[in-house]
Amino acid sequence: SVEQVGTPQEIYHGPETRFVAEFIGDNNVFEGEVVDRDREAVTVAVGSERFRVATAEGEPAPEEGERVVFCVRPEAFVRNGSENVLRATVASSEFLGDRTRVHLRYRGRELLARTAGELGGEVTLGFDPADAHLVRR
Q1: Global pTM?
Q2: If you placed Cys at 114, which of 29, 36, 74, 120 could pair as Cys (CB 3.0 to 4.6 Å)?
Q3: Side by side, which strands form the sheet with 28-37?
Q4: For residues 46 and 100, what is the distance between their CA atoms, to the nearest angstrom?
């Protein structure tokens, strides 16, 4: 069955399901429970950490207590970000010319980041709530 129909750009930036989010390009997929919500975003508990994820205008926001999946593209992570902060350990990196693909270990799993420079050791990254995308489980 078809998971999603759209332009490559629409599918890349707005995957509708977890399968599409994991299938189309590099993506970091998180799962957690909504613990708070307001007009612009929901706060999702992923283990002991909390992340704010923007809700799409015109879309119904998930309810508190609901389990949700959200994704963050590797290029959305910023060093020493002030929002949605997480600490991870660099496992390896690949020089790609103008960018570096960084493989990170975070809470027993792998995350990917794309940065303008090299990262090493333990790093602090963050992402803007608008750069996270809620998907249907």
Answers
A1: 0.81
A2: 74
A3: 49-54, 41-46, 28-37, 67-72, 132-135
A4: 27
